[in-house]
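User: Please predict the structure of the protein below. I'd like the answer in C-alpha cell form so I can feed it into my own downstream comparison script.

Assistant: Understood. Taking the following sequence of 47 residues as input:
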Amino acid sequence: MEHENFKGKKRVVTIPRRKEIVFKTFMSILRQAGLSKEEFLEQLKKL
C-alpha cells in the first residue's frame, strides 16, 4: 500500500490483513510510514 503521511512524504507500507497484529509488527509499520507512536496517536484523534 502506498501511503502519504501528514508530512507529505510518500512511502510504501505493508499492512497485514488481520483483525489484530502483534505490537512489534505495528511498530514496524509505523517505522515504515515514518511516524512515531505519538504522531500516529495524534493523527488517530483527528478521525
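That's the full C-alpha cell string. The longest helix spans residues 23-33.
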